[in-house]
Amino acid sequence: MTGMAALQQAGHLTVAGASKRFGAALVLDDLSLAVAKGEFVSLLGPSGCGKTTLLRCIAGLLRPDAGHISVAGRDITTLPAHRRNVGVVFQNYALFPHLTVAENIAFGLRAQGVSKSESAPRVAEALALVRMTEHAGKPVTALSGGQQQRVAVARALVVRPSLLLLDEPFSALDRKLRETMQVELKHLLREVGITAIFVTHDQEEALVVSDRIAVMNAGRIEQLADPATLYGRPASLYVLDFVGQSTRLAGQVTEAAGGMLAVQTALGPVRAPGQFAPGSRVVVAVRPEAVVLGEAAENRIAARVREVSFLGSRTQLHLDLPEEGEDRGVVELPRLPEGIGPGSAVTLAFREADTMVFPAP
Amino acid sequence: MLIRPTRRALLGGAALLATPGVLRAQTPEIFVGGPASPGLTDILFPRIERKHGFKILFEGTNSLINLEKIRSNRARPTMTVTMMDDPVLILGEREGLLEPLRGKAIPNLADVQAEAKPRDSMWANWCFPAASISYQTQNVKPAPTSYAEVWDRKYREKVILISMRITQAVVPLLAAAHLATGKPLAECLRVADEGFSKLRELRPNILQITTNPPQAQQLHESGEVDLFLSPDSRTTLFRKSQRAPVDLAFPKEGTVAMPAGVALVKGGPNQALGEKFINELLDPETQALVAGTFFSKPTNTKAVAPAGLNLPDLVVLDWEYFADNRNRWIERFEREISAR
Amino acid sequence: MSATALAAPATPAPARRLDPLALLALPGLAFLGVVFLLPLLLLLWSSIRGAEGFSLQGYVRVLGDPYYVGVIGASLQLGLVTTLGALLLGYPAAFALARAKGGWQVLLFALVFLPLTVSIIVKSFGWGIVLRRDGILNWAMLNLGLIERPVRMIFTEGALYAGMINVFLPFMVLPIYSVVRMMDPRLPDAAATLGASPWFRFTRVTLPLSLPGVVAGVSLVFSLAVAAYVTPSLLMGDRYMTMSMVMAKAFLNLRDWQLGAAMAAVLLAVAAFVVVGASVLQRRLGGR
């Protein structure tokens, strides 16, 4: 209970030891999370990792089998959804198809018994906030995907929730619009000053919109950190893989001294900071942009180019690695040097400090 | 009426479809229309076919549809013999659809009791089913001896009447007229209107007025209904023979003969075979079989009813008068007796 | 042809031009014209033809006779009670059916629709067994101590209503089910997160969205029930005359074509009013 109290103090939203089982499947496994007031946190993970279940538990649409949830210091674990004051923007928005834009936005106010005279200016304000004033009288079925999302956000915000949950809010939009809306929505929510939880399976989206990201795996939070830490110092191979790309090689620790390791890989020896006993089987990894061609850093390995991908602002080289399994190779260069193409032999150089070591799975 | 020719054409077409055998007969055949009751095609007809060497094509439907068929084929009749209830036969006679029966061709007609050859032998009754009160033998002891007992309050909600739309409903109407006027049952048809007020007094006892006698019969046998007025002996005594706990009462006022007529269709094919068929139906030996099969009274005075079937003398009604007044009685019955 | 079809959505054809797809309705229309419209016109014709040519006597007899007005009233009452009962039972059942999963849904479907495959005659005998004095229902209530002596249930109006609801329930469930099945189950969730109580969610979200199904079910069940013939005649007999029973009597027994046709025309008017009213209502609801 002291842990719970500590968590409650730490966060605006706290989830303490939440578990949820559907039949034989343990979907939430003793999960804890604290989110500060005004913070944007993403729940990131593949489908089935429990992120939507956690969101529904916070919203009150599901009740966890064990654990506690509180918002602003109040335990809401057993409170039904309509008494929680937790706003939700649903995947595909779940707008009321029989109501107009303005009626959709006014719905929550009417449900809570707000008088017409008080609700009218609030609806107008919400419409203006999402720049939908001119569409107020339209049926929601006549709106584009982006407009529907704005209505859904306005509908959730107009009742002044203490917390906003967004379930894959961009998945219904095409890629171009998605990128615009991500920035726009983040800006809007920041202006309102609300605490928001995003559920997403798209790591890029999570990186764009969040202050912190909780990477979820099998009902647990694998790592909760700010995007830079998550990218630069992933806590596990799972996080390394889920967020960004990398070149990774399996190997064995040959030497460990003073926080530095020597690892023998199939492509030669690599040195990296870390704490492993000699003889440990490990995976060494380096982010694509930390690699240069040539010999300008401590670690150097020889490889052959399999494929070249031009991405505009940068170029990716996919490497032919001698071993299958855990190994994979992706290098990113600002521009492709002359004479490099599929089949070229290259030397990769990267700094010891940029080299990460994980226990082999 | 515009609709009628359409219906006639349809029914006529159906009749033609049903009788292709008539047109290309090898062994002689006749087409007989009649009620779809058991006993005819499985017991009676095979016997006649064997005895006389012709084939009987039978179509079983109710009397009014049967009449409609004869009417629509008036120009080129396909049916030789029709077996219908007397009130419907009267309609057929009035429209000139029937051929009078001739004693020369049907010798057994001479032995048939006079009441069973109405309208100068325009048709003959080939048997007299009996109708009075059907009672549930486990609940009603002893057997009712008078129609007055039906009005007894101990039978509250224990009586089912047959709808006036069905011929057998004449029995409770006659009984009511008798109780109201004191006239003998045989004379009560002509004063039937005077029975309605008495019938109204029966209402507390009436559980239902049925248009679906098999359903009522089932409730009767199950004991839900003590008295059922009036399925005739074809049902009650047949079910009794099947060990159902029901029996036919023989009230002192009399038991009523239900109509079962057989007639020749005017201009029908193979008239001679038709006459042979009717003569055989009226034969004393066949009549005994008919009586046993249909739990009815023979109409040939020389016929000997099978042992165990002891039906009293029956009250035979003037079915022409009945036919002429039935619609009015249906209306009165519905409004005064049935209505909630 | 395929080019026109492809171009059609981009350039909406002028309203007056006939969509070639409408031709697909022709066989159906021709069929209905022969087997339905033609007999219908003949029926209306015979309702205004008396023994001496044109006469409105049939309608005078039906609408001017308190007895027949009572019969019309009884039919309407039967239709209303049946519809209301079927709605109260069928509405939640349709939701259960739409939300049930796997084997449960199969089972519920069977429970709702298997009774349709049982002949009404068989059902009526079954009801007899359940409702009579020594029947299952009386036996159960006696043993539970709810009653002291058997209650008469057979051939009562209560039994008639119960039987009618039993017969027509599937026709209420099916249209509501097909609407509810298409309804996004997250809409009530969304309403809940906006602070809507269960009652508010039902009256402002679930009910309005399911209303097209309700309107279809109500108009279907009402027009079937108000025209019912077999079920009332089996469950009540002549003591509860309906319009259809009068028609049967007029055509089959009285051979009074004008009376039967006039009653049929009145029934048709009632049913047409309900069906047209329902489709107007439905269009208005659908327009939102």
From TrEMBL, chain B:
Domain of life: Bacteria
A family per Pfam: SBP_bac_6
Keywords: Signal
Signal peptide: 1-25
KW Amino-acid biosynthesis (keyword) present: no
Keyword check for DNA damage: no
PANTHER family: ABC TRANSPORTER SUBSTRATE-BINDING PROTEIN, THIAMINE-BINDING PERIPLASMIC PROTEIN-RELATED
Full protein name: ABC transporter substrate-binding protein
Gene source species: Paracraurococcus ruber
From TrEMBL, chain C:
ABC transmembrane type-1 domain boundaries: 72-280
Protein name listed in UniProt: ABC transporter permease
Keyword flag Cell membrane: yes
Membrane topology value: Multi-pass membrane protein
Transmembrane segments: 21-48, 68-94, 106-130, 159-180, 209-237, 257-281
Higher taxonomy: Bacteria, Pseudomonadati, Pseudomonadota, Alphaproteobacteria, Acetobacterales
InterPro entries, sorted: MetI-like (IPR000515), MetI-like_sf (IPR035906)
Keywords: Cell membrane, Membrane, Transmembrane, Transmembrane helix, Transport
The family this protein is said to belong to: Belongs to the binding-protein-dependent transport system permease family. CysTW subfamily.
Subcellular location: Cell membrane
